[in-house]
Amino acid sequence: MEALKQRIQRDGKIRGNNEVLKVDSFLNHQMDVAFLEEIGREFRRRFAGCQVDRILTIEASGIGIACLAAPAFDHVPVVFAKKNKTKNIDGNVYLSQVESFTQGKRPYPIFVSKEFLHPGERVLLIDDFLANGSALSALIDLVHQAGAQVVGAGIVIEKAFQPGGALIRGKGVRVESLARIESMDEEDGITFCD
Question: Binding site residues for 5-phospho-alpha-D-ribose 1-diphosphate, as ranges?
Answer without folding.
Answer: 131-135
